[in-house]
Amino acid sequence: MKVRDLMIMNVFTVKPSNTVKELLTILNTNQIGGVPVVDEKNHLVGIVSDGDVLRYLAPKPVGIAGLVYIIEDGDMEEVLKEKLDTPVREIMTKRNIQFVTPDEEFEKTIRLLSRHRFKKLPVVNRVGRVIGVLSRGDIIHSILKNIISS
Predict the structure, then answer these.
(1) In 1-14, which positions are buried (b, 16+ CB within 10 angstroms) versus exposed (e)?
(2) Which CATH homologous superfamily contains domain 3-148?
(3) Which has the closest alpha carbon to 44: 99, 1, 103, 84?
(4) What does the alpha-carbon distance between residue 78 and residue 84 come to, in Å, rounded to a whole number?
(5) At what angle do helices 76-83 and 50-57 cross, to 10 degrees?
(6) Is the pLDDT of residue 3 over 60?
(7) Which residues of 30-39 are buried (b: 16+ CB within 10 A; e: fewer)?
(8) How far apart are CA 99 and CA 114, in angstroms?
(9) φ, ψ for residue 38 (rounded to 5)?
(10) Would you say residue 120 has pLDDT above 90?
(11) Among 108, 101, 130, 135, which Cα is nearest to 120's?
């Protein structure tokens, strides 16, 4: 079985210039946990997840044993509102981005997802354009449909 047999082709993406607020709207509206980040030609340049957003928005521990948190210049709500205007490029994963191609074997994808504990992988074509996404749920569904149910 190939990646092309399992991937979702209706992919939601963001640009590096999109704000964290715009990203959260896309994640929430579509009930997804992350998206590929693409340039103007739809080439993969990063990936960003709900976990990246939470880590960015969380108060930063300082002081003895991290028991004290600093809220920068204002209350938490004001700080969050300000941080929501941050471009995605500031919080996205830019290095060592893992992806698969449509012609790769299903087994490679399982190894990548399990080894790195990713929730999903972008699927890119030969020129690096995002053409799909493959998630852990897609693989579980395929196993149920094609192996257990047959």
Answers:
(1) eebbebbeeebebb
(2) CBS-domain (3.10.580.10)
(3) 99
(4) 10
(5) 130
(6) yes
(7) eebebbbbbe
(8) 13
(9) -125, 155
(10) no
(11) 135
| pLDDT tier at 68, thresholds 50, 70, 90 | very low
Q: Cα-flanking dihedrals φ and ψ of residue 97, to 5°? A: -75, 125
In the predicted model, what is the mean pLDDT of residues 111-119?
Answer: 83
φ, ψ (nearest 5 deg) of residue 67:
-85, -10
Amino acid at 87: P
40 is written with which tokens? 């103007």
pLDDT (0 to 100) of residue 128: 93
The pair of structure tokens assigned to 18 is 């999109």
User: Which residue is listed with tokens 């003895």?
Assistant: 64
Burial class (CB in 10 A: 0-12, 13-18, 19+), 63: exposed
Q: Identify which of 96, 99, 94, 91 has the alpha carbon closest to the alpha carbon of residue 46.
A: 94
Structure tokens at 8: 């979702």
For the entire predicted model, the pTM comes to 0.84
Cβ atoms within 10 Å of 108's Cβ, excluding its own: 13
